[in-house]
Design brief:
Elements lengths: L11 E6 L5 E3 L4 H17 L11 E6 L13 H13 L1 E3 L3 E3 L2 E2 L5 E2 L4 H10 L4 E5 L11 H6 L1 E5 L2 H8 E5 L5
Parallel strand pairs: 2-3, 5-8, 8-9
Antiparallel strand pairs: 1-3, 4-10, 6-7
């Protein structure tokens, strides 16, 4: 979800042959590129406890399909981390979930801006569950009551809470 215009962004991930930094595509700015690097490092450090490990000889490709719309900011950190844990664990991300929040190398979820626009965008897109940083709880007062009542909004302190909400239990085919 993005605060610039209140759009929902999709993220795709793949494990591709090669070593090194993540491959990032989709009109991403420097801050989004940093977020992807943080997400990859975080997955390398916590992945095992979530049944996810980065395969040897593979590098991560993260793509935000949205044409020529430029995207930048730290708000996709938890989304990229969740997508990578999903990729390497085989656990699918629930299709009704939207999320936004910066993530640290220790897995803490940090606050972001534009909560109202992002929650409204999630509602317009038909999502039923939204995950936000716990420190953005007060920003929900700006969201119309009917939207807050229509959504199951979770406030997360760390990435483990995000993953518990966002990922389905049954694993799909894990990436090799």
């Amino acid at each position: 979800m993005t605060g610039a215009g209140g759009d929902v962004l999709l993220v795709e991930t793949a494990a591709v042959d090669g070593e090194g930094e993540p491959v990032l595509t989709g009109q991403l700015g420097d801050v989004m590129r940093e977020s992807a690097t943080i997400a990859r490092s975080l997955v390398a450090s916590i992945g095992e406890r979530h049944g996810a490990s980065l395969p040897d000889g593979k590098r991560v490709h993260v793509h935000f399909p949205a044409g020529a719309i430029p995207k930048d900011g730290p708000s996709a950190g938890i989304t990229m981390t969740t997508a990578l844990i999903s990729l390497f664990s085989g656990r699918r991300v629930r299709p009704d979930v939207g999320m936004t929040g910066e993530v640290t190398l220790q897995g803490r979820v940090l606050p972001i801006g534009g909560v109202k626009q992002k929650v409204l965008a999630a509602h317009r897109a038909g999502l039923r569950t939204v995950i936000l940083p716990i420190d953005n709880g007060e920003d929900l007062e700006d969201v119309p009551d009917e939207v807050r009542e229509a959504l199951d909004i979770h406030l997360a302190r760390d990435i483990d809470q995000v993953l518990a909400i966002a990922l389905e239990e049954a694993p799909a085919a894990a990436a090799a």
